[in-house]
Amino acid sequence: MFRAADQFLETNKAALAGFNPIIASHNRIKAGIAVIDDLSKRQAIGTKIKSGLKKLEKEELDSIAYKVTDALGALAASTNDSELRMIALLEKSTLKRLREVDYNIKIQSIYKAALPYADQLAVWGVTMEDIEALNTKSISFVQRTPDIRNVQVITKQASAEIHKKVVEIRDEIQDTLDALMKPFNTLNPTLYGQYINARTIVEIAATQTKKTEDTEADAAKESA
């Protein structure tokens, strides 16, 4: 929303060349816009991709877990091993209901139960790679949560810093640049008229920002 003012100052560099305070103000505005652009890139790092990867990883883990427990169940039936049969019991809905920490414990328990029977499970279509995948993929799956939280923290901080920088640039224009440009109403009315047109965009955006801030403040009071 500040690019209109920036563009005006850039376009009229020659006419404003002798006015160092205006040039200094323009430099501060340009620097602020650059900071906002950088923060916006950081803010754009959403959790959607990481959450999607976590979902896919869980679906793959579920599939391997069911494959291994089905084989364990078949092995238990063929050897009449009641203890192994109990370990192999895994309803399709069970993994969906478990909390993340309990889910990981369950996957690890299947992994440890299957390891001693790796050779015998091969005939039932389970490879050593399948068994090891339970371990490696469960570790990777658990790590997804702090990764997602870290992204959320970065995004939230970037949003706060953007808001602060927006206020700084808005104040720079309203409190400093406006006063510096006011004499041009007499010195160069055409140039000043162009500035006012550029400022109108900033003023509208500033009003909308203020309304948003007031709404957020009212909401905070109501929730307090």
Produce a short descriptive summary.
The chain is an all-alpha fold. It folds into two domains: 3-46 and 150-216, no CATH class; 48-145, no CATH class. 84% of the residues lie in helices and 0% in strands.
The helix content, as a percent range, equals over 70%
Number of domains: 2
- Continuous helix count: 10
Determine the mean pLDDT: 83
**N-to-C span:** 32 Å
Largest sheet: none
Task: State Rg.
Answer: 31 Å
Structural class: mainly alpha
Total strands: the figure is: 0
Structural write-up:
The chain is mostly helical and 224 residues long. It has 2 domains: 3-46 and 150-216, no CATH class; 48-145, no CATH class. 84% of the residues lie in helices and 0% in strands. It is built from 10 helices and no strands. It has helices spanning 3-11, 20-43, 48-79, 82-88, 94-97, 100-114, 118-121, 128-181, 184-187, 189-223. α3 runs antiparallel to α8. The chain is rod-shaped and about 100 Å long. 20% of the residues are buried. Mean pLDDT is 83; it is low at 215-224.
Features:
rod-shaped; mainly alpha; 0% strand; 224 residues; 84% helix
List the helices and strands and how they pair.
Elements: H1 3-11, H2 20-43, H3 48-79, H4 82-88, H5 94-97, H6 100-114, H7 118-121, H8 128-181, H9 184-187, H10 189-223
Helix pairs in contact: 1-2, 1-10, 2-8, 3-4, 3-6, 3-8, 6-8
